[in-house]
Amino acid sequence: MSMYDLIVKKKRGETLTKDEINEMIAGYVGGSVPDYQMSAMMMAICFQGMTEEETVNLTLAMAESGERLDLSAIKGIKVDKHSTGGVGDKTSLVLAPLVASVGVPVAKMSGRGLGHTGGTIDKLESFSGFRTSLSEEEFINNVNRIHIAVAGQTANLAPADKKLYALRDVTGTVDQMSLIASSIMSKKLASGADAIVLDVKTGDGAFMKSQEDSEALAREMLSIGQLAGRQMAAVISDMDQPLGYAVGNALEIKEAVDTLKGKGPKDLEELVLTLGALMTVMAGEAKDEDEARLLLKNNLYNGKAYDTFLTFIEAQGGDIRQAEDTSLLPEASITAEVPSEYSGYIADIATEEIGKISLLLGGGRETKESKIDLAVGVALKKKKGDAVRKGETLAVIHANHPEKVAAARKRLAAAYTISKEPAEKPKLIKKIMK
């Protein structure tokens, strides 16, 4: 069946067979299926959805579209973590070195920014010289030696996903459950980890806006992973406001460094400890989550997590002077405060809009060819439940283009909802699923 016929079939809501999916993915990777036809298929899937069987078949076809990483030379149970994406989500920057500091082998494949969310690889490249293109030998050696390596997805590892990931970003086809599940799990299955912890975001700043949808996505990914013989767990976490206070690549690196020194925002610390405890137990480095949490918290406050982070940055070519003195990281030429127009309490923050404002400033990609400005973004000063006085700063814009500041200020002020009555702070950890 031709790609045209497959697009029409899916547009009508019919089910694609395993052979049809395999043929489609092979054709896209091989070049016989062009971007415009695959874009049409992605949009058809967004409107019509996929069955569980279609999703599993798509995941396996993407995982098998290139090489699979063999991590058998790494000692111990290799643990990876993946987030479904959020605003200000710098979790991996803290989590990976923290769990590595207690002896967990972290062999992590990470991605770049997608839509209004940031990517771990982009953030790490705020460090001058930092390399995410590692040979398989170097990747394995680093995990054996210092318990951590973070690499970008290579062209040969799930290449179908790499092509689709970039295409979905610029065609409005990111927020579809089966496409998100297959993208995440194809990379994870091809990456060779023994155990996978998923951070599934829910709320305004997430791709899944409701907790019900987030749990359904988690179940889908847990099922795919377990069928493939992996240890799996998922955490449903709040994204109805940015995680921490910093949104933007270098700004988030600074906040991550503070957290690794035990001086970070409490919501980021709580999420890292929750995810890290699951990873530590899966790796066999603690008997239960309470013991794991204590080990991790100790290393967050005694300097071991930060020392592991420095070793990791240096091992991948980064300038550790920028970690020791974060003022050496990329900094914007313009800062502009956004004052509150009212006194009261922060009742709501339009989180996706905060991500889009960072995108407007240059902190994300609007097209596949876009170049990211690592210095720009938004630094929040007030979050949900906080009291605020009229004229007090809600957030600070970090920008390099003066013409973008006025629009960003207006949109940022409108992103805050202020009430006269006290507002509750949201619960961060919604659910843990295994």
From TrEMBL:
Keywords: Glycosyltransferase, Transferase
Span of the signal peptide: none
Catalytic activity: 2'-deoxyuridine + phosphate = 2-deoxy-alpha-D-ribose 1-phosphate + uracil; uridine + phosphate = alpha-D-ribose 1-phosphate + uracil; thymidine + phosphate = 2-deoxy-alpha-D-ribose 1-phosphate + thymine
EC number: 2.4.2.2
SMART domains, A to Z: PYNP_C
Stored Pfam families: Glycos_trans_3N, Glycos_transf_3, PYNP_C
Recorded family membership: Belongs to the thymidine/pyrimidine-nucleoside phosphorylase family.
Function summary: Catalyzes phosphorolysis of the pyrimidine nucleosides uridine, thymidine and 2'-deoxyuridine with the formation of the corresponding pyrimidine base and ribose-1-phosphate.
Assembly with partners or alone: Homodimer.
PANTHER family listed in its UniProt record: THYMIDINE PHOSPHORYLASE
Protein name: Pyrimidine-nucleoside phosphorylase
Lineage: Bacteria, Bacillati, Bacillota, Clostridia, Lachnospirales
